[in-house]
Design a protein that fits this description.
Number of strands: 9
Number of domains: 2
CATH class of the largest domain: Alpha Beta
CATH superfamily of the largest domain: HUPs
Bound molecules: pantoate
Distance between the termini: 32 Å
Order of helices and strands: EHEHEHEHHHEHEHHHEEE
Oligomer: single chain
Radius of gyration: 19 Å
Shape: globular
């Protein structure tokens, strides 16, 4: 496995692999890898000849007062874990090269990013789509893998890739959970022991809603009440949103659930903001 930090070198190597007819699979991350990220790398490994992992804590997707400065980092450990999955290249650029002096270009996807995470973090998705565009132009992948845990991000990137004709296959991997149900996230490292226990309210609420759905409940309001009751019962989480939406458009689901829907939750547990989600209906892609 090789480590590259220079953008021109990464582009040159990507061009070489493409010219050699090799398929490049790409997993963009902000590092501090967990099993969920390793699933993405394994998926890329199965579908490509060359696997590239990027590690870049992207400043433009954090608003002032968010956790940019304390975002967990452990580059050595990340490299060891990446190598264990058969990753070929770790691309870890510097912020100054990614955003050169005078950088004034943004990529913005309308509509999909205005609700849920976009409403709570208004500048977040613009930072994500801009950096992912830059990374796509640098790594030049044939395929790129994202996690369903960030469902709205995944939908926005899929739409951007289609609308802007990037010619990259976007693959979405299911959420990886801890044995007790907590969705894996680099931010789980912020949780105290007590927060960690209380954070289970999110996945419990989702599971309860799924149980009701599996037992035949199709009224959106009823399912949402189940979520809210469970989150309120736990008393420990400060809810940001709990929404039932169409999984591609993120428009609110109708009164009755007919096709596939996404249940998305964001809540603060202690000082940590966590998100989780679950799809219901045909072709559900998470567990
Ligand atoms: O999901 C993430 O870790 C980030 O949002 C991404 C896609 C790597 C862009 O910085």
């Amino acid at each position: 496995m090789i480590i590259i930090s220079d953008i021109n070198e990464m582009q040159r190597l990507a061009d070489e692999h493409r010219a050699g007819g090799r398929r490049i699979g790409f997993v963009p991350t902000m590092g501090f890898l967990h099993e969920g990220h390793l699933d993405l790398l394994r998926l890329a490994r199965r579908a490509s000849d060359i696997v590239v992992l990027s590690i870049f804590v992207n400043p433009t997707q954090f608003a002032a007062g968010e956790d940019l400065d304390r975002y967990p980092r452990d580059f050595e450990r990340d490299c060891t874990l990446a190598e264990s999955t058969g990753c070929d290249i770790v691309f870890a650029p510097k912020a100054a090269q990614m955003y050169p002096e005078g950088d004034a270009s943004w990529v913005h996807v309308d509509q999909l990013g205005s609700s849920l995470e976009g409403a709570s973090r208004p500048t977040h998705f613009r930072g994500v789509t801009t950096v992912v565009t830059k990374l796509f132009h640098i790594v030049r992948p044939h395929l790129s893998v994202f996690g369903q845990k960030d469902a709205q991000q995944a939908a926005i990137i899929r739409r951007m890739t289609r609308d802007l004709h990037f010619g990259i296959d976007i693959v979405i991997a299911p959420i990886r959970r801890e044995p007790d149900g907590l969705a894996m996230s680099s931010r789980n490292t912020y949780l105290s022991d007590q927060d960690r226990r209380e954070a289970l309210a999110l996945s419990h609420a989702l599971q309860l809603a799924r149980q009701k759905y599996d037992n035949g409940e199709r009224r959106t309001a009823e399912l949402r009440s189940t979520l809210l009751d469970e989150l309120q019962r736990s008393g420990a989480v400060d809810l940001d949103y709990a929404a039932i939406v169409h999984p591609d458009t993120f428009e609110p689901a109708g009164e009755m659930i007919t096709g596939r829907v996404l249940i998305a939750i964001a809540a603060r547990v202690g000082k940590t903001r966590l998100i989780d989600n679950m799809t219901l209906g045909e072709k559900a892609i998470d567990s």
